[in-house]
Design brief:
With 491 residues, the chain is an all-alpha fold. The chain has a domain of 156 residues. The chain contains 24 helices and no strands.
Length: 491
């Protein structure tokens, strides 16, 4: 027993399209038939008349847009967005911009009037309708356009020609000056970004991560709309900083692959914004991710690339510190010391940071890197002096930085044969609440315990107590909680 294809199903659409093409019908004939037969919106009918999926249509729009962006800028579409454009102005839809409508029409090989109907026209601003009435593709499409048989309006002449041309320019100007974000809103986005960057140093990191994700989504949504070119650049910069924050946080949670993904998106935003300070901070973030992923040479490359942008704020200090950190991990003491010297030079030339917080390198953070390098290059006394001076000058440093400095302090005491000093140094670390025990802290604590186990002090009572406390500490940490969580990860 044969089964008839469901009305409006893919099988029905394909069958109708093949039948009409065999009968010599044009694409416009197929689109009209599909609209009348299955009550489709015009853009959906044209897509099905071509036999394309949502993603195939999005790819064609993106290819055309990248080769010839319209006055509203390049359009970036995906299957979901094309689907929302098709449903507009119905529920769960999104209005396509004028640039998007022109691209859609050109991709389908038709006039822009063919992809909008009366319902669309009622929902469009009058100025948009006026522009669309006279819109044409900027250059010939690779797909032949459908011949128009309707009579052409008589050519305008005299004063009517001049007046209409002025009206068209005025309508375009109204369209060009429209924006979906104002100056105060942009200022608020940057202020919120600075707040998140600062809060991450002192508050629950997972909570701050969630807030950062929400703001990033808001900025992404704004970028899908229309704004002035300068505002677009500012939004890309905000998106870059927010993705950079998410990248740094993700690596602190032990999620290095996710951190790399965020870092790549942050870099794209920095490139689109043309923002050198953002480029430097993104490369600093990627250097950090590469370091904790064991990719030391890659970490050095990122750090040097970031420094080449000559950032205005303290990114130059941090980048030199990160290079030194990676060199010391490779056992290259001379190169590590040279990088630390460049970090000290950068301190003398640094200006104010645009974002601050996590994206800044105060003295305690530089000292944290410097002490870790000195320990690896066999200078425990100098490392201990560096730490104690920094802690005395800035006792209320960020909990992550301070914890790592305390671990370096304990390592220096152990290297000098002072296990009691190490135990005392670690007490503030062990008091850290589980929700603030990030991957760099637990990793460096593991390193310390491993070093202790190989030392001549391994059999002492102090060493045993320290090892036990460290193991208990690491069992209750943010990376472990995330790894063991039964809640599916949010997209």
């Amino acid at each position: 027993m044969s089964h008839q294809p469901k009305s409006g199903s893919k099988a029905s659409r394909d069958s109708l399209r093949h039948e009409m093409l065999a009968a010599g019908c044009t694409t416009v004939d197929i689109a009209v038939e599909m609209r009348s037969r299955w009550r489709m919106r015009p853009r959906e009918a044209w897509r099905h008349a071509h036999g394309w999926t949502l993603q195939e249509t999005a790819d064609r729009i993106n290819d055309l847009s990248s080769s010839r962006p319209g006055p509203g800028g390049a359009v970036a579409a995906d299957a979901s967005l094309v689907g929302k454009w098709e449903k507009w102005p119905g529920p769960s839809s999104r209005r396509p911009s004028l640039t998007a409508l022109l691209l859609i029409a050109e991709v389908f090989g038709c006039q822009v009037e063919d992809v909008i109907d009366l319902e669309d026209r009622r929902a469009l601003p009058e100025s948009d309708v006026r522009i669309l009435h006279r819109a044409a593709p900027a250059e010939a499409s690779s797909t032949p356009t459908v011949p128009r048989t309707a009579p052409q309006a008589p050519a305008l002449q005299g004063p009517e020609l001049v007046r209409t041309a002025a009206e068209e320019s005025a309508a375009w100007a109204r369209w060009a000056e429209t924006t979906n974000i104002g100056e105060l809103a942009l200022e608020q986005v940057m202020s919120d970004t600075r707040r998140l960057s600062a809060d991450y140093l002192t508050e629950n990191p997972v909570t701050v991560f969630s807030r950062t994700r929400v703001l990033r989504d808001q900025v992404f949504a704004l970028l899908e709309g229309r704004q002035h070119p300068r505002q677009t650049a500012d939004l890309y910069a905000a998106a870059g900083y927010l993705c950079g924050l998410l990248a740094w946080m993700s690596s602190d949670f032990g999620r290095l692959q996710d951190a790399d993904t965020q870092g790549r998106t942050a870099w794209l935003c920095a490139e689109l914004a043309g923002h050198n300070d953002l480029r430097a901070w993104v490369l600093s973030t990627r250097s950090k991710i590469a370091f904790w992923g064991g990719r030391m040479k890659e970490s050095i490359t990122y750090a040097r690339r970031g420094a080449a942008y000559a950032p205005v704020g303290t990114a130059g200090v941090l980048l030199a510190c990160q290079e030194a950190d990676a060199w010391s991990q490779l056992g290259a003491a001379h190169e590590a010391r040279e990088a630390l010297a460049r970090a000290s030079d950068a301190r003398e030339q640094q200006g104010p940071d645009d974002i601050g917080g996590l994206f800044s390198c105060p003295e305690c953070r530089r000292a944290n890197y410097a002490s870790a390098v000195m320990l690896r290059t066999g200078e425990p006394s100098h490392a201990l002096q560096e730490i104690e001076e920094a802690l005395a000058a800035q006792p209320a440093a960020a909990y992550g930085t301070q914890s790592q400095m305390r671990i370096s302090q304990a390592s220096a005491h152990l290297a000098l044969g002072e296990p009691e000093g190490a135990t005392e140094a670690l007490q503030p670390v062990f008091a850290l609440p589980p929700e603030q025990r990030l991957e760099p802290v637990t990793h460096r604590l593991h390193e310390l315990v491993t070093t202790l186990a190989r030392s001549r002090m391994a059999t002492g009572a102090s060493a045993a107590a320290l090892q036990s406390a460290a193991e208990a500490f690491c069992l209750e940490s943010v990376p472990r909680r995330i790894a063991l969580s039964s809640v599916p990860a949010a997209s």
